[in-house]
Amino acid sequence: MSFESNLERVSSRHRELEMMLSTSKGLSAEDITKLSIELSELAPIAEKINEVRSLQKELNENCSLADENQQDKELLVLIQSEIMELSKSIGILRDELQRLLLPKDEINEKNAILEVRAGTGGDEAALFATELFSMYQRYSALRGWRFDILEISENDIGGYREAIASITGRSVFARLKFESGVHRVQRVPTTESGGRIHTSAATVAVLPEAEEVDVHIEDKDLRIDIFRASGPGGQSVNTTDSAVRITHLPTGIVVSQQDEKSQHKNKAKGMKILRARIFDLERTKRDAERAADRKEQVGTGDRSERIRTYNFPQGRVTDHRINLTLYKIDKVIAGEALDDIVDGLTATEEAARLAAMP
Fold first, then answer.
1. 260, 255, 297: which is closest to 276 by C-alpha?
2. What confidence tens digit (pLDDT) does each residue in 75-121 have?
3. What is the pLDDT of residues 312-331, one digit of tens each?
4. Which long-range contacts (CB under 8 A, 24 or more apart) does 259-262 make?
5. Rg (Cα) of the chain, in Å, rounded?
6. In sequence order, which residues have a C-beta less than 8 Å from that of residue 290 and are 6 or more positions away?
7. To 5 degrees, how large is the angle CA 154–CA 171–CA 354?
8. Which of 199, 183, 222 lies closest to 309, judged by CA?
9. Where are the alpha helices (DSSP H) in 167-325?
10. What pTM did the predictor assign?
């Protein structure tokens, strides 16, 4: 469908919705709510379409005036200046409309399961994983999202071997989906007496949180083992058989949960993580099948792909996918400047999607 056809389709649907809602004839309360949401989504697009058409009409009139006043050089200069300004404004609005008309990916509106794991580098990698997890926690707070810790596994010095959280809010997955991959850190560890710079890594996975309607799991496909919790935890750790290990037999995905004192709560948390991992696995398979159509994606989403380097001695953070370097590592780690990177990645993906449009 051409760009102009798209504009007419949106305008026509917007007018249709306005007429339907103005009378509400034969509409149920549920229908009215659904149509009102659709109308609110189309309204800003319809407004820009009307603005473009109004400017286009003005441009056509100026072009006619220019043709009629070829002999009046002074007036012609003014008209041509107006034509240039109108053409520029129309171009900007058309670009905005193209972005607004990009097909929406419903998965972007989903909540997310965040998983951070220490990679190569021993204790230093675990400490870096702790900092990354805290960075996302602070970033979530700044955006008004809810950040619920599902599981934390610590080493002897307080570093995180693994940390998992559920993040709930508006457009969570859209903002965090580019964080999946290997994050590398370069710095002098506190345990290093010689002052040498070490390189360590942590792996981040951001999975869209799946509802039961997204992933149907049969009871017969699950093996659930109950065992006694171990390691740091609440007062009931090592006193009750409350820890839960859930194995999804068809995929072999295993989830363990022991943070809660209640076996039922551990199972509920475990199922939330399991659904997200199964949903992500299925989504990854679908993406692989459509490999030829994935030009719009920034990076591959592969957990083994090195995406970013945090160099503390130089105070810089570099995202290797878009060659973006920021010299404000403290603000990035604090979550305050993470949007600078996310915005760059989002813009790059958006530009690629626009370029791929017919």
1. 255
2. 888 989 999 999 999 989 988 888 787 777 778 888 999 999 999 88
3. 999 999 999 999 999 999 99
4. 259/149, 259/150, 259/151, 259/152, 259/233, 259/234, 261/234, 261/235, 261/236
5. 27
6. none
7. 120
8. 183
9. 172-176, 263-289
10. 0.70
